[in-house]
Amino acid sequence: MAALIRVLLVDDSGVARSMLRSILEEDGGFEVVAEAHNGREAVELACRLRPDLVTMDLEMPVMGGLDAIEEIMAAKAVPILVVSSVADAHKAYTAVARGAIEVINKPSASSADIADFLDKARLVASIPVITHVRVRRAPPLVSTPDVASAIHPTLPAAVTAADVGIVAIASSTGGPQALAQILAQLPADFPCPIVVAQHISDGFAVGLAEWLTTVSPLAVKLGTEGETLAPGVVYLSPSENNMTVTGFRRITLVARAANQVYRPSCDALLTSVAAVYGRRSIGVILTGMGSDGVRGMEAINRVGGVTLAQNESSSVIFGMNAIAIEKGVVQNVLPLDALADAVTEFGRNRATTGRPR
């Protein structure tokens, strides 16, 4: 019989802690070893009890969740799952920057919410974590998402999507950290649009986009129906729909299937990019579980585009990228800290004029 996953619950609300305890204990695979009312208690209990998992709220007295995460990860690192409300979405991804593994909305009583929470809890508890050395945080970059596209020259209306390059990124668990590192290292004059499908809980994509904008010189925004893609702008797919691209550099949002496991679909985005942009496509597959994105990478590789994958040692979960590599549809396997340079090089080779090199 498998050992129970030992959990520390951290939330200022007794009602919330009681609900999570009930969900975990009814599942039978978890043991709640302690509860904390604030971040200071969480730090003390996490260091003393060494649980397999900490579920962390963010808004608490005495010490908030962000500071508690930083303290825990700098002392005795434990896998942390942020369980918060959509209203705290931006702050939730700041928590990821400080060492939390994943973010999820507080579950309702619905069976789908409960199953999603339990799946996330099991996954996060299984991920090895390392102690984070405290670093002085630089002030956030100032960006202007609404006017960022004006920085770049507008292409003539007659120029179709096939005449420009594009970067399409697929990512899942561990993806927000990886995306932040890549986007932070891209130049402000990056010549191509970037489209991203990141598996994420409903309602949190806006917060992720806002957080990524603070760490990147590029504007990061949610893709909207009919929007024209602009060079040097990052378009993040909302989870409530599958984002795809069409001719004449436009975004289309397609309703997701009722039984769709991974949201949004990486395959839907990358296969549409391959169909429209052909060999001017650059596909990147990052850390994450499952196989979503592999079919899209295969499509980009088949039409002569560039395909890149994050390597095993820098991945939180070597899953979807591992499958793409094993299938032989990845041309370059790189550590996370080398991906931005590769994306920049290939992006410049595929921008606006001439044929890809």
How would you sum up this structure in a few lines?
By secondary structure, the chain is an alpha/beta fold.
Provide an overview of this structure.
The protein is of the alpha/beta class. Helix content is 35%, strand content 20%. Strands 8-9-7-6-12-13-14 form a 7-stranded parallel beta sheet, sandwiched between helices. Strands 2-1-3-4-5 form a 5-stranded parallel beta sheet, with helices on both faces. Strands 10-11 form a two-stranded antiparallel sheet. It is elongated and about 55 Å long. The N and C termini lie far apart (56 Å).
Layout of secondary structure:
Elements: E1 5-10, H1 14-27, E2 30-36, H2 39-49, E3 53-56, H3 65-75, E4 80-84, H4 89-97, E5 102-105, H5 111-125, E6 166-171, H6 175-185, E7 194-198, H7 205-215, E8 219-222, E9 233-236, E10 241-246, E11 250-255, H8 266-277, E12 281-285, H9 294-302, E13 306-310, H10 320-326, E14 332-334, H11 336-349
Parallel strand pairs: 1-2, 1-3, 3-4, 4-5, 6-7, 6-12, 7-9, 8-9, 12-13, 13-14
Antiparallel strand pairs: 10-11
